[in-house]
Structure formats: structure tokens, C-alpha cells
Amino acid sequence: MKARIAILLVALLVTGCASINESMRKWQGHHISEVMASWGPPSAVVDDGLGGKIYTWGSTRHWSTPGSAQTHVYGNMAYTTYQPAQSQSYNATRSFFVNKNGIIYRWHWRGL
Prior knowledge:
Layout: H1 2-25, H2 32-39, E1 44-47, E2 53-65, E3 68-74, E4 77-83, E5 86-98, E6 104-110
Antiparallel strand pairs: 1-2, 2-5, 3-4, 5-6
């Protein structure tokens, strides 16, 4: 059972990475203004040291797991254990390296 879950998680991860790679790759060679028209303004813009700029869109992804309670009975005694809800988050970024003419020549992403 654990092996099946692991295989499913790996398959989902590979599919997600391939999808992001394709999403980023399709912008290479385009003008950065096209990305901005589609995605909105970037979170940050910095010089790339080569006369161009690096445009980055960032977001924080959040998810939660529900809490749970289990009651255990031993003879005439019962007790309940509670696992509180868990919240997690991570940062995701999408960056485009743009030459001095505004054309995307490279891209990078981190976080699904």
C-alpha cells in the first residue's frame, strides 16, 4: 500500500514539474510585456548584471490537514486523543531573465 502511494506521489510530482516547465518554456523568446499582460505585475525586478533584468513572480502556498479525534476504550476506561489541524506553507517563484530588448532568454522556477 505504501509503495502505491509513493508511486502516485512521484507521478503527480513529475506531471506537475512537466506542466510548469512547459508553462515557463512557452514564454522564452517573447517580450516580457506579454507575460506581464497575462500574469500581472511581477513581485520583483532586479538587474541581471548583463544589461537586462530578472522579473520574478512569487507567492506563498498554504494548505491544512484537518484535525482528528480518536477514542480508545480499555475495559471500563476510555480516553480520547486529539491531533490538531496542521497548517503548512512554502514559497513558489517564477523568474524570467530578460535581455536589454525585453526578450526572455532564460527562465527558472522553484516550488510547485
